[in-house]
Amino acid sequence: MRCPPPSSNWFSTLLLINRVPLGLMFVLAAFNKILTGTFGRNLMIFADRVAKQAPLPRPLGLAYGFALPWIELLAGLCLVLGFFGRIAAALIGLMLLSFMIAMGIIPDGPSPFDKNVILLTLSIFLVATGSGTFSLDALLVRTHRPGR
User: Fold this and answer.
1) Alpha carbon distance 139, 98 (integer Å)
2) Helix (H) / strand (E) containing 92
């Protein structure tokens, strides 16, 4: 059985089906950290918790904790829209890798391994393939081609 070329609508539909939920997951996680409770209070609590858990010096842990929700929001939105999709997927992959380093790959619960491993493989796939036809990246390439 032959795999269709990456430019086909079928393949682009599969990329869209994988890209949007991963991006939305990061957008919703960012909103949860940024907008719930009194504005800024949850972000400060989150940054402090990250600084305590991260294998980094406290000032770096705090900086990472404050920056993380904003990077999650930006990368998630870009991935959903397919705008700089490869870069957004790479950022999400790096964040997932940092989560696994900080919290461990094997969880304490009954799961055989952390869901972040699966999400990391999905982000690597999106880095390799790009956003597909149904994305702002593809739209911008089509509108900026010479001779059009």
Assistant:
1) 32
2) helix 85-103
Per-residue pLDDT of the chain (148 residues; tens, 9 = 90+): 455 555 578 888 899 999 999 999 999 999 888 877 555 677 888 888 888 887 788 888 888 888 999 999 999 999 999 999 999 999 999 999 988 887 766 666 666 667 888 899 999 999 999 888 889 988 888 776 665 5
Q: What is the pTM of this model?
A: 0.82
Phi and psi, residue 147, nearest 5°: 90, 5
Q: Are 140 and 133 in contact (CB under 8 A)?
A: no
How do the domains of the chain map onto residue ranges?
A: 10-143
